[in-house]
Amino acid sequence: MMNLIEIWVIGIYLLSLLVVGAYGHHKSKNNSLTDLYLGGREFGVLTLFLTFYASLYSGDTIIGFSSVAYQNGWLSLMYISFMVAVSGSLLSYAPKLYKLAKERNYITLSDYISDRYPNKVLHYLVILAVLFVLGSYILSNLKAIGTIVQSLSDGVISYSFGVVALTIIIFIYESLGGMRSVVFTDAIQGVLLLITIQIIFFVVLFEFGLNPNVENTNIQEIMTLPSGNQQINWLSTVFLAFFSVSVFPHAIQRIFIVKKESNLKKIFKLMTFTPFFTTLPVIIIAIIAIDVLPELSKAQSENVMPLMLSKISHLPFLHWIIVLFFAAALAAIMSTIDSSNIAMHSTLVKNIYLQYFPNSTGLEIKYISMLISLVILSLLAYFALAINVSIWAIIRLKLEVLAQLFPMIVLGVWTQNINAQSVLIGLVTGLVVLLYLAFFSSIPKPLNIHAGLWALSANFIAIFTMHNFKNIVLNR
To answer: What secondary structure letter does DSSP report for 277?
Structure first.
């Protein structure tokens, strides 16, 4: 799809992120946890908006959503509601959590959980859930990186080389400047992604239109109105997003880096509109591809965005826009990986390592953090090369696990009555129900509702049952 010069241009752009990492290192003031993991809480509204945007719109959107849209047609428009629901959910609890974080100096999500619910079993169970969610998020995005690199180079650069090379770049620039490097790189790639995707969307729309071949039976089936079961699945997916994506540990860590509460509200209000400028264009491009690139297999559909761009790459005025888009898309995926990675190793350092080595110096913490980051990225890069599973399957499972953290986070913010024992019982109940439905049940989605939502319902019921039972016992 791209010639050697264009591949080199993208490579140089990605390597330039190391310069941004060095700038982040230059701006670092000390080796404190706040400086390393929260960037000193000194970012403005625009920068924070772009870092939220770049970290939430990644391989899941460019590869995962486009693949599902190619397979399911207009039903995939639910992913716009999916992303709007995330902003609504964040607005419902983030301002209150921000106040607590500022008062109590939280660095990670686990800081909040262990402070609000002092229970060691719950503390470590939440850490395990956080590590699984973040690890699977990194894994799905590493697979997306390999897929895009292989496609845009037309196989000149292998999937495995793309995964390994870009993992190394992420590790270097994040190690240089911590959260500052992550936020600064996010801002650059957020701007590029937002601009280039609009241009490409309108060109694809103008070039091919929305006129599917009515003689194609598969297209006719995909373009029909959703059935009752599909509508239930639509609502189920939107609710799953509401309860899961909004409590991503790396998104919550972004809440902690904001300077003022008013800034936080402005950011989430802006985020409400971003699905219409990112998710919607990606979905419509994939739907147009149903006619332009008929009969792609499920595995091939993960390449639908690169394949569609190859169809318009002959337009001279657009060629370098496509190059910039791919550079921005790769960098946006990298921003999601680095955000998840820093949330992951900050959790391990702050909530496990420092429990056993509380007198470690700032420099020691920085080096331990770098070592843990290297181990995490190396392991997940290996899994991205070794595991043959679809990106969407990874996305769905991590969201269903993540939803089980929603009750303890939001109830803990809104009420002081819920205690650690009730939350622990709820979490265990939710995870057991989820594991059963996902891996052992012959009907993993009863009534076409995601297993994660059935598990979340069991989670809430267990919390309130335990809470009310304790109140009855205490009042006797």
So the answer is: T
The pair of three-digit structure tokens given for residue 130, joined into one six-digit string:
């956080």
Beta carbons within 8 Å of 306's beta carbon, 6+ residues apart: 1, 147, 148, 151, 152, 326
Q: How far is CA 115 from CA 154, 395, 413, in A?
A: 51, 29, 12
Spatial neighbors of 195 by CB under 8 A, at least 6 apart, are none
Helix axes 120-152, 319-348, angle to 10 degrees: 160
Q: Kindly report the CA angle at 187 between 181 and 193, in degrees rounded to 5? A: 130
**Gap between the Cα atoms of 22 and 35, Å rounded:** 15
Summary count for the chain: helices (H), strands (E): 22, 0
DSSP 43: B
Q: 455 with 433: CB under 8 angstroms? A: yes
How far is 459 from 476, CA to CA, in rounded Å? 26
188-232 residue pLDDT tens: 878 888 888 888 888 888 888 766 454 444 444 555 566 777 778
Residues 6 or more apart whose Cβ sits within 8 Å of residue 81? 234, 238, 241
Evaluate whether 283 touches 167 at the Cβ level (below 8 Å). no
- Contact between residue 67 and residue 301 where contact means Cβ atoms under 8 Å apart: yes
**CA gap 275, 280 in Å, rounded:** 6
Residues 6 or more apart whose Cβ sits within 8 Å of residue 400? 240, 244, 434, 438, 450, 451, 452, 455
Q: Single out the residue of 66, 15, 136, 68 nearest to residue 384, CA to CA.
A: 136
What is the identity of the amino acid at 144? A
- Residue 118 is given by DSSP the state -
Asked whether residue 420 carries a pLDDT value surpassing 50, the answer given is: yes
**pLDDT tens figures, 366-412:** 889 889 989 999 998 898 888 877 666 777 788 899 999 999 999 98
The CATH superfamily of 4-391 is Sodium/glucose cotransporter (1.20.1730.10)
Range list for CATH 1.20.1730.10 in the chain: 4-391
Separation of alpha carbons 389 and 291, rounded Å: 26
User: Which pair of tokens denotes residue 119?
Assistant: 């229970």
The model's pTM is 0.81
Residue with tokens 């080796």: 31
Q: How far apart are CA 34 and CA 68, in angstroms?
A: 39
